[in-house]
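::Encoded backbone::
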Amino acid sequence: MCNKIIVFDVNETLLDTGALNPIFERVFGDERILRQWFSELIIYSQSLTLSGSYMPFGELAVAVLQMVAEIRGTILSEQDINEFRKRLATLPAHPDALPALEMLRAAGFRLVTLTNSSTQAGEKVLEQSGLAHFFEKQFSVEEIKRFKPATENYTSVAQRLGVNADLLRLVAAHTWDILGATACGWKGALVARPGNAVLRVGKQPDIVEKDLIAVAHRIIIIDRPE
């Protein structure tokens, strides 16, 4: 088995947040508000970390939804919030996730996850998506109560796995996540899904592709020993 470990972000990288589109279309009349909600969610998760606070990601997700609704003059019902929670807890896997994970496992890589979601929520959503069995460990920021890209998350994963940073590569659909990982000496692979792109400043990921299958091909070429 290869001694290198691939660490996967979960939401948007492995799981399709587009499954939330119907509720944004119904409530706001525009599914594109999903992108605003997600961007605000990341901003306020990082704001909590910088200000020394923490709350579970799922609770924050609902609070940000309520904030966006207030900004847009939209009234959310209890039914709306319950539907949102249910959809968030049952996000499906992207179609490219399973074949990419099969490729990497067949190539001998060790696979783990690191998510902003709580430990319980992260494990549950991966299990129902059919992807959980690929991962030997599932890490959550809940363990240190600081959201990504706080560097403590990445150093904690390396310590708990008992490996040096140069053996770790983060696969994520978000440049902000990769910035945190590369700052800790990890390699990065960006899945540039629609709505995500490279930030052309700072240390760059050495792999950038449009889908997970292409990312897996590149990882096998670059990281697997001869």
User: Anything to note?
Assistant: The two ends are 12 Å apart (CA to CA). Residues 156 and 162 are 10 Å apart (CA to CA).
